[in-house]
Amino acid sequence: MNTPHVVIIGAGFGGLNVALQLRDAPVEITLIDKQNYHLFQPLLYQVAIAGLLPSQIAYPLRTIFRKQMNISFQLGEVTGINLEACYVSMNGSVIAYDYLVIAVGAETNFFGMDSIEQDGFQVKDIQNAISTRNHLLRMFEQASREANAVKRRAMLTFVVVGGGPTGVETAGALAELINHVMVKDFPNLNLREARVILVEANGHLITPYPHELRHATFHLLRREQVEILLNTKLANFNGQTVTLGDGRQIATYTLIWTAGIKAAPMLDSLGVERAGAGRVRVAPTLQLSHQLSHHPEVFVLGDAAYLVNGNGQPLPMLSTVAIQQGKVTAQNIQRIIDGKKPEPFHYKDPGLLATIGRNAAVARLWGVSFSGFIAWVIWVFLHIYRLIGFRNRILVFVNWAWDYIFYENQIRLITKE
Ligand SMILES: Cc1cc2nc3c(=O)[nH]c(=O)nc-3n(C[C@H](O)[C@H](O)[C@H](O)COP(=O)(O)OP(=O)(O)OC[C@H]3O[C@@H](n4cnc5c(N)ncnc54)[C@H](O)[C@@H]3O)c2cc1C
Questions:
Q1: Is the pTM of this model over 0.90?
Q2: Ligand 1: which residues within 6 Å by Cβ?
Q3: N or C: which end of the chain has fewer CB within 10 A?
């Protein structure tokens, strides 16, 4: 018998875990990604606020799989999938599969607001995190030589849109950068003029979190002097002015958009049923196997997949979901090869965590809510533990320890893009 060929598209949290879990399985794996590294997206905002280097949160895929004998890596972007003939198209060639795993993740959703896509900043991949960092640092440089007070204040006004965990973390970290680091680097600049404004359309920050943690987040951010605008929609940004839904205007050159994501565009080529945020509807076994599309050899997972949880809500777009689904997908492929039935996926919620700054985080773990220093220590250690590569863990730990002791952000470099 031929060895089954498993093609995995995407080496993010989902795809990576499928590949690792199949290391001893009797299969040949081809792992395809348009990047040659696995990226730890939860720490991307640290790159954007000059806290970490990209290489500290990204790890080369060929290094991860050096010792795994049943895998080959292909760098490239999959542009099409033929579900009937069982092949994927990439770089002008095709790759046939027996089993296909689609783990292509998500991209930023601007909800059709082209002006924000064009003039705003985002924190979704390394390139845009570096662009954000360069822009933020340039604003301080320009403000330091700007005599016109109105223009200078606009340069020192930073608007973050989206009060979810990424928006909260970005706003908190940016306020700390200004209050503890830039204040030392720019002694002649009056940084009391600087503003960090967090805009959220809902009446709460971090909506999925319990009430006490939303409340704690609000107060921790206020302590860092972040201005919080709840029940406020963004209407427009033209690169110089933010216009809010109620007509108010804020002069600023910086808008960081963290208010939405949607499944990766590559999924459009599938022609299958899609649900909220463009995610592909899957069976509980994560197979593309329901009334409308019957392809049990195809698995979709992570941010790309839509599956309803036991509580009737769609599973959130979180790394913890993608990691657990990656492991179950690998087990199900192995079960099918062994002639057994695949098993349904059940999400085990490990809890919620978000950091607001030094000594300040909120966490819901083991059914208990924490906020402040204890939550921050848990956040630091969990994020270091979850980074791939011993070297990265040590570097990030040393970086954060240094920042902690000396109130410094070490990567304050404006680089060429
Ligand atoms: C700024 C930020 C902060 C976050 N914070 C948290 C957090 O604190 N906790 C948490 O649990 N989650 C967090 N998340 C969400 C988490 O990162 C995602 O849920 C998770 O990455 C989803 O995993 P995935 O495998 O589905 O996709 P991803 O990890 O996004 O991986 C998708 C992979 O597919 C590749 N790919 C896409 N299209 C193609 C193509 N056509 N051809 C080839 N390769 C392709 C991409 O290059 C990528 O490597 C955060 C996300 C962001 C952006």
A1: yes
A2: 9-15, 32-35, 41-42, 44-45, 77-78, 103-105, 123-124, 165-166, 264, 266, 302-304, 317-320, 322
A3: N
